[in-house]
Write a structure and sequence with these properties.
Blueprint lengths: L3 E2 L3 E2 L5 H10 L3 H9 L4 H16 L3 H8 L3 H18 L5 H8 L4 H9 L3
Antiparallel strand pairs: 1-2
Helix pairs in contact: 1-5, 2-3, 2-5, 3-5, 4-7
Length: 118
């Protein structure tokens, strides 16, 4: 049994439940696939990705990112979701090339930057 306070902190004081919930909520990836198949311009799909999926993956990251440093697996799980999204948008590019072309920064880097002020 778990209890979540403010939608982020669980009763066992780990981030496993939160990251699992992020992964479930980020299943909006399907809309990116549909947009890609409809030949929507890549820059528009990136904008929708940032608005619909990435915003979920970064929800309250300043609070929980320091806890992820203890578990690299959880950080990798979140990064894997972004890799999947960018592979849908840019199917012929590697992850680093897709980041460069889209003008995005890795999620773990953004979380680090956002949490350094707290």
């Amino acid at each position: 049994m778990t209890f979540k306070l403010l939608g982020v902190i669980s009763s066992d004081l780990t981030w496993d439940v939160h990251v699992s919930n992020l992964s479930k909520r980020a299943k909006r990836i399907y809309c990116l696939w549909n947009l890609s198949k409809a030949e929507v311009p890549e820059c528009d799909i990136v904008y929708i990705y940032c608005s619909v999926v990435r915003s979920v993956l970064e929800y309250a990251c300043a609070v929980w990112h320091p806890g992820l440093q203890l578990s690299n697996k959880l950080s990798e799980d979140i990064e894997r979701l972004e890799k999947r999204c960018l592979k849908i948008i840019y199917p012929k590019l590697s992850y680093s090339e897709a980041l460069e072309k889209s003008g995005l920064v890795r999620l773990d880097t953004r979380r680090e930057d956002n949490s350094e002020y707290f």
